[in-house]
Each structure stands twice: as structure tokens, then as C-alpha cells.
Amino acid sequence: MSKKKPLILVTNDDGITAPGVRALIAVMAEIGDVLVVAPDKPQSAMGHAITINNTLYLNKISKEGDAITEYSCSGTPVDCVKLAVNEILKKKPDLCVSGVNHGSNSSINVIYSGTMSAAVEAGIEGIPAIGFSLLDYDWNADFDTIKPFIKKITQETLANGLPKDVVLNVNFPKLKKEDIKGIKICRQAKAIWSEKFHKRITPQGKDYYWLAGEFVNLDQGQDTDEWALANDYISVVPVQFDLTAHHSIQQLNTWKWNE
Amino acid sequence: MSKKKPLILVTNDDGITAPGVRALIAVMAEIGDVLVVAPDKPQSAMGHAITINNTLYLNKISKEGDAITEYSCSGTPVDCVKLAVNEILKKKPDLCVSGVNHGSNSSINVIYSGTMSAAVEAGIEGIPAIGFSLLDYDWNADFDTIKPFIKKITQETLANGLPKDVVLNVNFPKLKKEDIKGIKICRQAKAIWSEKFHKRITPQGKDYYWLAGEFVNLDQGQDTDEWALANDYISVVPVQFDLTAHHSIQQLNTWKWNE
Description:
The structure is a homodimer of 259-residue chains.
Chain A: E1 7-11, H1 19-31, E2 33-39, E3 58-60, E4 69-73, H2 77-89, E5 95-102, H3 109-112, H4 114-124, E6 129-134, H5 147-160, E7 166-172, E8 182-185, E9 191-195, E10 198-201, E11 207-210, E12 213-217, H6 225-230, E13 233-240, H7 249-252
Parallel strand pairs in A: 1-2, 1-5, 2-4, 5-6, 6-7, 8-13
Antiparallel strand pairs in A: 3-4, 7-13, 9-12, 10-11
Helix pairs in contact in A: 1-5, 2-4
């Protein structure tokens, strides 16, 4: 059986030169036709930011005849997806993958993550999407180990099709291949960042702050992404963008709103 | 019965001088003790962005003896909440309100909205929170009309307490008071922005883009925020930050992940 190769859009939030996205591009080139549109500089923790009060630039990086077409973009990860779909492709790709992020996007990190926001944006636009992250902030982290798992997860997603309005948040533990126990479907653990700002003083005598913080897992469940990662599994959380807390609507309807 | 006045944190994403936040501050001053920490410049569409690769500045705007303490902040709406709670107050306020946004944050806009991200951040930190938005982008929009409704919704929230891990997304139609039919609890409508980038050329001959687009409501339900607003109601959507698509976990567990 011969099938047309899928068209795969690749983006990230660490910038187009990051080893994480280069590893992702290498895997995707084995599976389909690849278009890369990624930020021209790091855009970590940009959440679902879009650029509405500033201009956007696209720069074609690849040359005529290159196997993979690549653009760097001056905007956020979400801008990259919007420009790729609406300006470069003028159609929907078969899949959008984002990452591999240098660092975790498990549990509450999904909310702050530019990597996952790019995947969510693709999902909103009706494109199957996966965000990949490795629990290693090192620029020279070992992405080779996780390549076969990225390939497997991508192929399963292409073969089965994602549930409607759902994208995948995949996190890899920082382990050798033989120590990874497998892939687990999880829910997002309840966790917070306990913030500790570092207050400093400029040479001119003005106070300023650096955001710092400590990750605190508040969730003892064994069905969470934090549990899976701590127990040597790859975590896969299905993520939705209907943020309605449907379970609370009945309770809120008992309030005296219109008296 | 005399009760201690609640401590209310006010922020927004249009910047501390925006008429929307000034209206919100005026209403909150009638209800509790108010601390304002808001961006020093517009931060619309910043989503849940936080500032991790740059310095943050707080500038105290109010003077000693002023009834309301106000700080402008160089960061995003989410940075404002984090700095207010962890550096200025060093404790949790009783409530965080964000807005009033100049323009809609209904349906999918909740994902892109700095106003709502500030409220969600407060919710993550365990603080009851409400985001308010008016369907009027005009800088000189009529915020007086909605003040009694803001007061009512805030008082109901303080009296009842919000469901756990839920914040409210409140949107007001652009109507005269006598034309507003009341307050409706809703779910988030399924909608998208259909993007049309405007391509232009710099004086130096380089292509650039402006993000533009058209809002498309894909949802015919009469229980949505879009329906409520189109039918002259104020919409209140309970918003959660557990993004897990719990309903899809069973289906994903049928895939061949570990073969």
C-alpha cells in the first residue's frame, strides 16, 4: 500500500536553532514532508501570546532545492503556526508538532508554555497537534534517546487520528533508553510554582526583580503526568481548549445573579 | 454585622491608565481595600506569558496617604499578579479582579487574553478571581453602565465563594442599562479567528505582516457565552486550568503505545 506522505508543520519556542527542534525535524523528515516555521529567538514562557501591536517578519532560511523548507519568524510560537497555515501553506497541514522543548511542560507548566500553546493553536485551527518536551534544560541535552519514542507517538497519532478538539502534551523523563518503562496516558497533575522573586538593584540604584520559583506538586494521584515522569514513564496528557468548568455550572446557577 | 473589608487585587492588560481598569478600581473601592498592580503599557493578547528572560520593575504610583495603593509593572498581567502576591502583599488577597478589558474575551478569546490569564494565574495560586470585559474596543467606552453589574457579581462571588479551581470570565454586551436582560451562566462557545494577514513592504523593501482576522462563531448552542451576549445578556463562564481532556483518556488508552 502506498500512501501520500503527510505534510508536517514543525515549530517550537526555544528558537529555530535549538537542538530540540533540530531533533524533532530529523524525526519528522523520516515520516513526512516537513515545513519548519519557528521563532528567530527564544520565546519560552510566552503562553498563548500573539503579536497584534507589532509587525511580523518571516525569513526563509532554507535554500532552493533543500529537502526541508524552513522559515524563522519574529513572533511568538502561536504567531508561527498562524503564519505557517495562513500565509505559507494556505492550507492545513496533516499534523503540527512543537518542541522538543528544553525542559518540562508537565502539569501546570502547560499553561505557561509556548511549546504547548503552538500545539493548542494548531488544535484550535483543526490540525492534529503534539507538543514534545524533555525534562532537561541543558542546551546539549540528549535528544537521540527519545527519537524512537517521538516517531512511535507521531505514527500512532497519524494512524488513529486524535479525538476532536484534543492535542497531546508529551513529556520525556531524562533517562537512558533502557531505563524508560514505556508510555502512559495521564491527567495533568495539580501543581503550582511557589514564587520567590530575586530583588536586585541596578547600577543606577533602582530596584528590579527576577522571577524565580520552585515547582511544587500538590497531587498524590498515580494517574498524573508528574507520577508517570517520576516513575520513569513518558507522560501523554490529552489537552483541551474548551476551558469551561462544566461541572460547576449547576452550582453557579444557584447563586442570586438577577435579584 | 460588621465584617472586615476584603482585600482586593486589581489588574488588567490594557495598562494602568486605561479607563476600563479605572472603572473597576472605582467599583472595588466601594467593596474593599484595594491594591492595584497593572502593566505600565498595553499587554493585550499576551496570553499566559511570564517574564523569565528579562528584568521586572515595579513603580509605586500612589502617594503616601492615598486611599488606594497603586503600582505599575513593566511585565505581563501574569507577572503583575505574581509580584503583587509574592512581593508587595506577601500574602493572598481575598479576591483578584482583572479588567475591565476594552473588548471581548468571550469564547476562544479566553485563551489569548491577558486579562483572563491574570485571573487564571490568581486562581492557580488559590485566590478567587474574576475577569471582566466589555464588548467595546473604544478607549472611551461607557463603563458607567456596567458598574452596578460588576458590583453585584463581585458581591455574589465574595458571599458564595467560587467553586474550587474555577475563575469567572464575565463579558458585558455593549448596551444601555435598560436593554441588558440580566446575567447568564454559560459555557465557552466553540469559535475561531479566521486569520487574514496583511502583507506590506517596509520603506527598505522588506516584506512584513500584520495579524488581522475575523471572529467566526462555530457554535449554535443557546447555552454559550456568544449566544448570551448576542441576546443582550451578560455572560459568566466558569473557567478551569486543568486542561486535561478527561473524556478522551479512555479512547487514547486503546492505542498501541507500547508495542
